[in-house]
Amino acid sequence: MNSWMARAVSVVVVAVTVAACSGPRPVAGGSDSTAPRGDGERGVPALDPAGWTDTVYQTLTAMISDSAGQGKKAVFDFDNTTQARDVGEAVLARVQETAAIDPATLSPAMYPPFAAADGAQMEITRGVYDYYEGVLDSGGDADPFREYSSLPMPATVFTGRTVGDFVAQTRAVYDGGSGATDLDSGRFSTVLGAGRPFIYPQMADLYGNLRSHGYDVWIVSAGIGWAVRWMVQNALNPAIVAKYGKQAALPLDHVVAVTTLMKERSTGRLVSDYQLTHQTPDAAYINLDPARLSDLEVLALPDGLTSWRGGKSGAIDNIISRGELFLAAGDSVGDVEMLSRASNRLVISRMNKPDLAAAFAEEIGKAPEATWMLQPTVNTAPVGFLPTKCAMATRTASDPEVAAKADKSLAVLDGTGRLGSFSAC
Q1: Residue 276 contacts by C-beta under 8 Å, 6 or more apart in sequence?
Q2: What is the pLDDT of residues 170-211, one digit of tens each?
Q3: Distances from the Cα of 144 to the Cαs of 148, 149, 159, 315, in angstroms?
């Protein structure tokens, strides 16, 4: 880890996690007006260049400066964009590893047996994480949208339990930010088979810089909303606050993600995340108050608001803006509809995923007029942002499989002409 921001993610967060809070507590009601205003002349710290390609860094700093103080909207994906790895997958993996939920108690109507991609019979009793992986792989090339069928599963396996139970598992898989040690060690910390999540230091820095320059920053994620909000409160915001101050922390009602309907045990009424964050804001829910979360039972019924693939654009329309976004950031084909809403498009390019490189090369070809910023990274091991192809070669040299995948991605993305300084060591 090469910057103090990385230390803020892995060290400062530990203390804040113990306190179970971070940053300012948003009050009930809209918080757009709380977006801080600022620019370089008013003492906003500079974005740290460590890890970024020179091309992406220069583009980001110039565009942030040019439109500062206007309240323009920036929208980020979360898993593998804002943070390394997928927190929902890690929750499922921990549930299976610790037997926190007996899969035999889960309804076969919700989780029916099926023939997996390898022909073997897949049943929920094999484990919730294994079943989830089986659903992900079942579509193959025949159905590129199949993987999205599994997205609510990290929440629905908690049916009959509380949101507080879910959040407790999120806290456990984050483990005080221990996954961030992989930035220095080169290891791949896992929970069962899922990567242990942590916030990319560069992304925490970018959020804080945007907020401090007066941008209205949001997260629109296909991850589970309670996990994403917990990670913002206990991992992202502490790193932002350490450098930029409390006023730069992301409001917790600026998280739009996947949830189920909930039942309020004390009253028996049904409530939704949208209702409790935007329609009739509930500060205790927004701030993940333990007593409030223990009263909210997770249901199998899906929330009416979706935030994956084209649903991300719909969520933006319904909650954030129907106009053009200033900036959108993502890492996968699940983000392409959201990215298309912005003139400035930041792609966290997972070089260990050549299929994603090919997909984004195609997207760039469809919209050559957009400002595409490709920031290479690896999300497994050796994890982290990659400033140049020489740095990539050095860091992946110890793992021939990752190195081969990274070289394949490089060959594809080089052809787009959008890698800029990354291609020159």
Answers
A1: 282, 285, 286
A2: 999 999 999 999 999 999 999 999 999 999 999 999 999 999
A3: 9, 11, 27, 21
